[in-house]
Amino acid sequence: MKKPVMRALTLSMVLVVFCLLPAFTHAAEAMKFGAVDVQKILNESDTGKKAKSDLESLIKTKQTLIDEKGKAIEKLKNDLEKQASVLSPDARKNKEDELEKYVREYQRLVQDSQADVKKKESELTENILKEVQDMIQKIGEDEGYTMIFERGMVIYSNKGIDLTDIVLKKFDDMKSRKK
Prior knowledge:
- By secondary structure, the protein is mainly alpha-helical.
- It has two domains: 1-30; 31-178, Protein Binding, DinI Protein, Chain A (2-Layer Sandwich).
- The protein has helices at 2-30, 38-44, 46-83, 89-142, 164-178; strands at residues 33-36, 147-150.
- α2 (38-44) crosses α5 (164-178) and α3 packs antiparallel against α4.
């Protein structure tokens, strides 16, 4: 008695699946997916390249200051070593204190410079990402996408759904019109 009931249930389930399959297929066809490589846009857009250039310029400026301070410390250290035998204990102590002060200032300068660079990088990146996200949302709405993924999170996708170059071009076009 159990076998006929199981066969009837199985047959019923198969029929339901076959009846619903066209509806699922139609729904799947209506879905449109895309993927965007945001990192590529950050690296290759005109705005991203300018931000990177600005950041490199800031780094060079900070590095120049750090190098100058480091040379001053080295000079002071060498002077102290050369004069150590002729200096009085008090004068030597004063020179050592001065050297320690310069070393602390140098360390503070390095830390502050790193913090400034990190802050500037974060600001530049956040601004670009916000604009890119708005651009992607507009493309999604205008072109009827169901979902657009960030390419870095997708393990596999068909090349046909990659919108990176489209977003990159529209982003550069938008930014050049604003100038």
